[in-house]
Write a structure and sequence with these properties.
The protein is mainly alpha-helical. The protein contains 21 helices and 16 strands. The protein has a 3-stranded antiparallel beta sheet with strand order 5-6-7. Helix 7 packs antiparallel against helix 21, helix 12 packs antiparallel against helix 15 and helix 19 runs parallel beside helix 21. The N and C termini lie far apart (about 50 Å).
């Protein structure tokens, strides 16, 4: 009987993934007026709302009632929809406890169990998972890997496996891992960390895990490489694949839709009104930047202070291609272990060619640093960013290049609380002077891979100290931090600073192990007691 229920649940989930529509498609005019009139301060709130009635009834009521002279849109929405819950906002933290204990206490608060909310934008998943927190009420693709690092420290292998299984489910039934488990995310993915998740789970259990998830790894790869064989010399790109000189295939970020994002509808419409660009081109490039996870950064801008100059789809990102190099390597390894030498050789060859291409197109001899590559301009972009740490994390480069990257990061990126995301001071959140947990981890591990343990530990110490200090002053673990001045909150972006926070928690636990491994009885000092006042802007 239990097995029948579970099978029925999976059938329901399959239907929800394949047939679920985005709120903008369901509610049409109602959706547009709610977003443009800012019924909710945050555009993401409405697309996450839970309808009380079926959509047909809601629309019928809307078209009838809107004709009334005393029609109140906000009241109409409150009667027909439930606002999404954000439980973490009700959590009262105790700054007297250790930061580690605070993070451990947050895991249950950020964990979601399977559900089936009808007509919601939420895509139900079969297993439990961890959300980032704040306005991010669903699972997010690349966030989850860094969350899993913390769950590994917390010895919660079951939750790691559940999250990997959820991504496996999405790959099987959506054909890829969406940005998050929302219907409005079904046109794009995020940085492909699935192979690293599977690798992490295998390290906790056994290498047979790699064999079990091999079909999903291959299907994920096929998603990113879709259209490769149809690219001609006249048309050098298709979806996420770009062929350089008609030969080497590298990847870019993309989105299958060229329209405003439902979760940021008003922002995208207003941006398009201030731009003379073709709207479809602007919207697609905005969405592609969201697939990168770096939404937004001067990495993607032709003019660093103008978001409307975004041209993400022209850019071959160094970090994305390092991730796909790892995916190719992982698939080759699994086929080797399975004794399928022909397929192993094929994927090993793909990885080798990609590695050569990353060096050829993304290593800039003059700047002595890894940079993204604009394939239309046939030149590197000018923005130095922490993405340069990815070739070190995946050991793509030789020791000389690693040393040069290390020197640049320590001389120009390192500040009081860790590493700047880029050196460009802009209004975007993935720029100076913000620091982000996942990038700190990737660089720290990358430096360790090349023997720079002291430098890696130094960065880890600064980041852990920053996390601990801000927690003691605010009781919060934050989405991002100002690494130059801890008393000023991380800024930029389309929404207020969020707390929770999944990947910050995970990386904090992982790096705390590194920092305290030699003397666990002697924790880092946080900011001095006389600075335990309220941070500016919190």
């Amino acid at each position: 009987m239990r097995n029948c229920w579970f099978l029925s649940f999976f059938i329901l989930l399959f239907h929800s993934v394949s047939a679920q529509k985005s709120p903008d498609k369901i509610y049409g005019e109602l959706f547009e007026v709610v977003q443009m009139q800012q019924v909710f301060e945050d555009s993401k709130t409405f697309v996450d709302c839970i309808p009380i009635y079926d959509p047909d009834t809601i629309l019928k009521n809307y078209y009838r009632e809107k004709k009334s002279l005393d029609f109140d849109l906000s009241k109409f929405v409150s009667i027909h929809f439930l606002k999404p819950c954000t439980p973490s906002t009700d959590y009262l933290s105790d700054t007297a406890m250790s930061t580690k204990q605070h993070v451990e206490d947050l895991w249950p608060l950020l964990t979601r169990t399977p559900d089936t909310i009808l007509n919601s934008s939420l895509i139900p998943l079969p297993f439990s998972y961890v959300v980032p927190g704040g306005r991010f009420r669903e699972i997010y693709y690349w966030d989850s890997y860094f969350t899993m690092l913390g769950l590994q420290v917390s010895n919660d292998t079951l939750l790691i496996q559940n999250m990997v299984s959820n991504f496996s489910f999405l790959i099987k039934h959506a054909g890829f891992v969406p940005n998050g488990n929302r219907s409005y995310y079904l046109s794009r993915s995020q940085p492909p960390f699935f192979s690293l998740m599977v690798e992490l789970l295998a390290s906790q259990k056994s290498d047979t895990i790699l064999n079990f998830y091999l079909p999903d790894l291959v299907k994920e790869y096929e998603f990113w490489m879709n259209g490769k064989d149809s690219i001609t010399s006249r048309n050098g790109s298709y979806r996420r694949v770009v062929k350089l000189n008609g030969k080497q295939a590298l990847n870019r970020y993309w989105d299958d839709l060229a329209e405003p994002r439902p979760e940021s509808y008003r922002e995208d419409i207003l941006l398009s009104l201030n731009s003379d660009r073709k709207k479809e081109d602007l919207f697609r490039n905005i969405r592609a930047a969201c697939e990168s996870g770096w939404d937004f950064s001067s990495r993607w801008l032709d003019e660093s202070q103008k978001l409307e100059t975004i041209h993400t789809t022209d850019i071959i990102p160094v970090d994305l291609n390092c991730l796909l190099f790892h995916l190719e390597q992982t698939i080759a390894e699994v086929y080797t272990n399975a004794g399928d030498n022909k397929k192993a050789k094929h994927y090993h060859s793909l990885a080798t060619e990609r590695k050569k291409a990353i060096i050829k197109y993304c290593w800039n001899k003059k700047q002595k640093f890894f940079l993204d590559y604009d394939f239309n301009k046939q030149a590197n972009t000018s923005v130095k960013s922490m993405a340069a740490g990815f070739p070190l994390f995946f050991e793509v480069c030789n020791k000389k290049k690693a040393r040069l990257v290390k020197d640049e990061l320590l001389n120009n990126f390192l500040s009081n609380g860790g590493l700047f995301t880029t050196l460009n001071k802009t209004a975007q959140q993935w720029d100076y002077s913000n620091g982000w947990a996942p990038l700190q981890y990737m660089v720290i591990k990358g430096l360790s891979n090349y023997g720079y343990s002291a430098e890696a530990t130094l960065i880890a110490e600064k980041w852990v100290k920053l996390n601990e200090g801000v927690f003691k002053m605010t009781g919060k673990m934050l989405e991002k931090y100002n690494v130059k001045d801890p008393e000023i909150k991380g800024g930029g972006g389309e929404y207020p600073l969020q707390d929770g926070f999944g990947w910050t928690n995970g990386v904090f636990l992982k790096l705390s192990e590194l920092v305290h491994k030699n003397d666990k009885k002697k924790p880092l000092k946080a900011f001095s007691m006389n600075k335990r006042r309220k941070l500016s802007g919190y």
